């Protein structure tokens, strides 16, 4: 690099010093405060213009293919990756993909003959539920940034008596970030497609909770593509090129419903997978064998598609306790509101067995994203209770729901 390039880089005009990764919905106010404090300390130490962004705060709420250009650019060019580690963090696929992108940049540098810098920096945000060996990462030099007394960082931020220790930690981390960036220049990624990358945490041979595999939740999207739905209804704004792209609440959340549901599952420390409706029978069978949960996300309109209707009709009486059915629709969707009575009846007709059994089964027509989030949480807890009665028990870190699921029948 020339002296001019070095000068520009130190001003933050070429590459950010750090990328801050964290789990969604996890003390967002304190995460923002930490990001601002660390940025200010780096600017002061590196003599950087106060208006220049020296880092990037990942919102970590994107489970679908909706990574903005600035996030991709920051991840491709940042010199240090700081991960605010918690049990939820390692169950969030967007965090796993971001971690994997940076880890691959380190591996490529080493394979090209360079020295791998200690630039992937784990910081313990919450130690609850984390085993001692969770930092293991093949071929990557991980060096945890310890807090004074090894307190959780969120504890240092929350309690006034830790203010001095918190300031010392921020100063120490800022020094490490600057020195790592100056001594080891990590080349930017030439090609980066975060949306299609594999979750690095899924590749691990061990599981977060010791030898026991965390319970998995299967989201089956019973919806059509935009092309398929064009012959069914007029308003196609809720659909994409894949059935998994279905987004019934675009005004509240731009990402697909299944992606948003995955972030809800992570709050309960559940890993989740998303599959289209043509995998329904196999997924239910596999879930039953492993005492796992299946949640059907049903677009009432899609029941008019033969493939969706046949798949729902295939569900039998033996699936109670493993399957929850949620049928969300937006109050702003006037076309659905106009035809709701007929759509409602068609969904019930497509579920001849399950809609008659209230024990362990949740059928819910949900009119807002908030309702969906609440009922999904209830469905998870209800299904776990049913599985506990039929199989082995699982802990529910997310706590008890505020109310029990309600079956909305004829």
UniProtKB/TrEMBL annotation:
Region (Disordered): 390-410
Superkingdom: Bacteria
InterPro entries: FxsC_C (IPR026367), Toll_tir_struct_dom_sf (IPR035897)
Protein name (database record): TIR domain-containing protein
Organism: Luedemannella helvata
């Amino acid at each position: 690099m020339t002296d001019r390039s070095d000068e520009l880089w130190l001003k933050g005009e070429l590459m950010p010093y750090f990328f801050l990764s964290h789990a969604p919905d996890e003390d967002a106010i304190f995460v923002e405060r930490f990001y601002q404090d660390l940025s200010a300390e780096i600017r002061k130490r590196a003599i950087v213009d106060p208006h220049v962004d020296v880092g990037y705060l990942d919102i970590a709420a994107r489970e679908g293919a909706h990574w903005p250009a600035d996030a991709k650019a920051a991840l491709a060019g940042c010199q240090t990756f700081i991960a605010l580690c918690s049990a939820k963090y390692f169950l969030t696929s967007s965090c796993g993909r971001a971690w994997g992108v940076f880890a691959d940049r380190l591996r490529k540098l080493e394979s090209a003959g360079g020295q791998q810098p200690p630039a992937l920096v784990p910081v313990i945000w919450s130690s609850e539920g984390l085993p001692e060996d969770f930092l293991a990462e093949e071929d990557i030099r991980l060096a945890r940034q310890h807090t004074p007394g090894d307190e959780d960082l969120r504890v240092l931020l929350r309690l006034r008596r830790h203010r001095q220790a918190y300031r010392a930690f921020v100063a120490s981390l800022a020094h490490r970030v600057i020195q790592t960036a100056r001594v080891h220049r990590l080349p930017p990624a030439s090609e980066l497609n975060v949306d299609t990358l594999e979750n690095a945490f899924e590749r691990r041979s061990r599981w977060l909770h010791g030898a026991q595999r965390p319970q998995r939740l299967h989201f089956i999207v019973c919806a059509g593509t935009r092309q398929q739905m064009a012959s069914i209804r007029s308003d196609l704004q809720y659909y994409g090129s894949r059935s998994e792209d279905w987004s019934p609440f675009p005004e509240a959340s731009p990402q697909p419903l299944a992606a948003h549901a995955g972030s809800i599952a992570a709050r309960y420390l559940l890993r989740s997978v998303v599959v289209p409706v043509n995998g329904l029978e196999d997924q239910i069978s596999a879930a039953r064998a492993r005492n796992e949960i299946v949640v059907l996300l049903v677009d009432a309109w899609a029941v008019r598609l033969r493939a969706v209707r046949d798949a729902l009709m295939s569900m039998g009486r033996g699936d109670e306790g493993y399957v929850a059915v949620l049928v969300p629709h937006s109050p702003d969707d006037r076309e659905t509101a106009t035809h709701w009575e007929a759509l409602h009846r068609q969904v019930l007709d497509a579920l001849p067995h399950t809609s008659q059994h209230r024990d362990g089964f949740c059928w819910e027509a949900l009119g807002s994203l908030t309702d969906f989030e609440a009922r999904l949480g209830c469905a998870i807890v209800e299904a776990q209770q049913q599985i506990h009665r039929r199989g082995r028990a699982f802990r529910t870190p997310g706590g008890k729901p505020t109310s029990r699921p309600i079956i909305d029948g004829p």
